[in-house]
Amino acid sequence: MALRSPLRLLRPTPPSMVLCGARQSPLASVTPVLGTIPRPCQVRHSSHSPMGTPISRKKVTIKTLQTLHKKNEPITMITAHDFPSGHVAEAAGMDMILVGDSLAMVALGMQDTSEVGLDEMILHCRSVSRAVGSAFTIGDMPMGSYEVSPQQAVASALRIVKEGRVQSVKLEGGAEMAPTIKAITQAGIAVVAHIGLTPQRQSSLGGFRVQGKSTAGALKLLEDALAVQEAGAFIVVLEAVPPEIARIITNKLRIPTIGIGAGTGCSGQVLVQVDLTGYFPPGRFIPKFVKQYGNVWNESLKAIEAYRDEVKKREYPAPQHTYPMAKEDLEEFERLVDRN
Ligand code: KIV
């Protein structure tokens, strides 16, 4: 097919620069901290656009967390497992963002946390850290990456921090993990300890059971909390512990406690993001301590179903979702096509 002056048909639109002020930014409505200074951004004709720059609020450091603890102001922690969940947690102003090994179940569809490996954890830590400018980040040490020896633990922790770009690591276990916590902190890496219900050990604990319910159990928990503190942990997560015991342990420690299923007597709280936002299918089991603050599953389902219906009815894309061209170019094109 011989087209006349084909180059005339290829009149590219010059890349245009527009000012993206806070009002134009889709992030502005959810992130008041973004500020209103207009910044130039390029108009992109692609669906593969970056998600935006992390919000600028003061960086949360260990010192910030210690100050909150001293002031008795609760510390907020949430999990994130990828760039979007890290981004929204950061935008919501979380103090701490944990790339937990709950990743295994809620993002990778595994049965439990024992299956997730170090390389997978590192990949997800890296994607979350790209979204987080201010919150303090923690990467979970997966089962099998730290129990063999303190040396193994230091090597894994170094990889999580250097390759995963997070600011600290979390590991499960009490007094028996003290030498390991000491070795990691001596290597210059901040450690969050995790005691009480430790999901990586659920088989040996006889399932997902509340810990510290008996006097002996509560004493063991206190012993563990003191041991991880002495070993150098800067925070300890208490999971599935009676609230009275969690409060007493919190009062006995110099370091903050972060509770999950442990009542309000802890220095802060953590929840798994998909649990609290409701981003899971109906009928899924959720533990008693979870409060569901939203229903992201329903919102996503409604949006995707509406999209499906509009595509089937050829209502989407509407004219405003398409790229116009000059009438004379179109007519010329049609003339040329018809002639051949
Ligand atoms: O893996 C995880 O998400 C956790 C939190 C529940 C504390 O360890």
TL;DR?
The chain is an alpha/beta fold. It has helices at residues 6-9, 62-70, 83-91, 103-106, 118-131, 150-164, 178-186, 202-205, 215-231, 243-252, 273-277, 296-312, 327-339; strands at 17-20, 39-42, 75-79, 96-99, 136-140, 168-172, 190-196, 235-239, 257-260, 268-271. The chain has 3 domains: 9-41, no CATH class; 62-294, TIM Barrel; 302-339, no CATH class.
Which ligands does the model contain, each kind named once? 3-methyl-2-oxobutanoic acid
User: What is the 3D shape?
Assistant: elongated
Helix/strand order, N-terminal first: HEEHEHEHHEHEHEHHEHEEHHH
Strand content: 5-15%
Distance between the first and last residues' Cα: 6 Å
Count of individual beta strands: 10
Rg, Cα atoms, Å = 26 Å
Count the DSSP helices. 13
Give the CATH architecture of the largest domain. Answer: Alpha-Beta Barrel
CATH class of the largest domain: Alpha Beta
Low-confidence stretches: 1-41
The helix/strand class is: alpha/beta
Give the overall average pLDDT.
88
Q: Helix share of residues?
A: 25-40%
Pathway: Cofactor biosynthesis; (R)-pantothenate biosynthesis; (R)-pantoate from 3-methyl-2-oxobutanoate: step 1/2
Enzyme class: transferase
EC number: 2.1.2.11
GO molecular function: 3-methyl-2-oxobutanoate hydroxymethyltransferase activity; magnesium ion binding; methyltransferase activity
Notes on the structure:
The chain has 340 residues and is an alpha/beta fold. It has three domains: 33 residues, no CATH class; 233 residues, TIM Barrel; 38 residues, no CATH class. It has 13 helices and ten strands. The chain has an eight-stranded parallel β-barrel, surrounded by seven helices. The termini are close together. Bound molecules: 3-methyl-2-oxobutanoic acid. 3-methyl-2-oxobutanoic acid (KIV) binds next to loops.
